[in-house]
Design brief:
- The chain is an all-alpha fold and 72 residues long.
- The chain has four helices and no strands.
- 58% of the residues lie in helices and 0% in strands.
- The longest helix is centred in the N-terminal third of the chain and has 13 residues.
């Protein structure tokens, strides 16, 4: 996984003022999944990216430019 992906997820979560646990709950994944994304041990699935983008939009943050571009 690219450093930019892990940075994007961590930065978004921090901009939302959420813990890993809160973020995980909002997008319906486990805390360990968010932790693996942020530590570059795993890549979010297309479904997870959709949930991440939806959460960003709901909270008023721009979701454009988030990966994966081809799935949206």
């Amino acid at each position: 996984m690219a450093d930019s992906t892990r940075s994007l997820i961590r930065t978004l979560r921090q901009q939302l003022g959420m813990t890993q646990e809160e973020f995980a709950h909002e997008i319906a994944v486990t805390v360990s999944t968010v932790n693996r994304w942020e530590n570059a041990h795993a890549e979010p699935s297309k479904l997870a990216w959709k949930a991440i983008k939806d959460l960003a939009r709901q909270r008023g943050l721009p979701a454009e430019g988030m990966r994966p571009l081809e799935s949206f």
